[in-house]
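To the wet lab folks,

You asked to see what we're planning to order before we commit. Fair enough. Below is the target structure as tokens, and below that is the sequence we designed to fit it. If anything looks off to you, flag it before the synthesis order goes out.
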């Protein structure tokens, strides 16, 4: 198998699963780990992947991954997280849901819930929940972000400020080792921070890939979160900190 063809396949696998490992790829292609390391080094040098210990991930930094690629990343993990989160939302609750593919997955698992009031700044979530006839949906107004169907800005935050939610279900772009929850868009952060202030309980849905990424803006900290839903066990230091902060961690 020629290297360029293999590298294209490796890139497709990384976009699908979010991460590839040296050992896994060596076994899959029946080549040496040194060969895979060279492939990953070339993909990293071209900016298509970012090297991490034992493998590589889809790159991040100051610009977010294209929305359709984010939607394809780790779909199995997101579905497990969504199922666990939705199970803790009772019928009749008022809920805010922000922009993100993980929150959209939660919306899919709320389709059988009864008498929900859902406020969202995510057009995709509104469209998903429209199939739930007993769910009242309020779409927060503001500036439409065409790339992902998000609605952001001061007008959106002002509308969210009018509510008092039982729950906020929030996605994010990254979570760092100190427990800071990070994102890319200041206008989006403003809306989510307003929702946190207006919520009785804050839930964050973030798969393990979010702990491998970085973003420039702080949304909040895990100290502000009642429940974190993820799909892999956290590092021991962060798990210990969550216990001290009173943040419940649910590993789906």
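Sequence we intend to order:
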């Amino acid at each position: 198998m020629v290297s360029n063809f293999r590298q294209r396949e490796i890139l497709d696998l990384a976009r699908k699963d979010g991460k590839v490992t040296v050992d896994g790829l060596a076994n899959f292609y029946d080549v040496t780990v040194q060969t895979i390391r060279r492939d990953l080094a070339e993909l990293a040098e071209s900016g298509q992947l970012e090297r991490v210990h034992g493998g590589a991930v889809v790159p991040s930094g100051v610009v977010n991954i294209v929305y359709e690629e984010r939607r394809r990343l780790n779909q199995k993990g997101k579905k497990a997280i969504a199922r666990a989160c939705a199970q803790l939302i009772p019928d009749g609750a008022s809920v805010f849901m922000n922009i993100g593919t993980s929150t959209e997955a939660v919306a899919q698992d709320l389709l059988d819930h009864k008498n929900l009031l859902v406020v969202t700044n995510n057009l995709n979530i509104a469209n998903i929940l429209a199939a739930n006839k007993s769910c009242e949906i309020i779409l927060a107004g503001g500036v439409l972000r065409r790339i992902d169907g998000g609605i952001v800005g001061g007008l959106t935050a002002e509308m969210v400020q009018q509510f008092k939610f039982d729950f906020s279900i929030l996605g994010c772009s990254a979570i760092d080792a100190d427990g800071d929850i990070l994102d890319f868009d200041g206008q989006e952060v403003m809306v989510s921070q307003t929702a946190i202030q207006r919520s009785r309980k804050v839930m964050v849905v973030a798969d393990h890939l979010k702990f491998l990424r970085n973003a420039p803006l702080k949304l909040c900290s895990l100290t502000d979160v009642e429940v974190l839903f993820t799909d892999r066990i956290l590092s021991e230091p962060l798990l210990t900190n969550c216990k001290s902060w009173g943040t419940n961690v649910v590993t789906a």
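Structural context that might help your review: The radius of gyration is 19 Å. The mean pLDDT is 90.

Thanks,
Computational group
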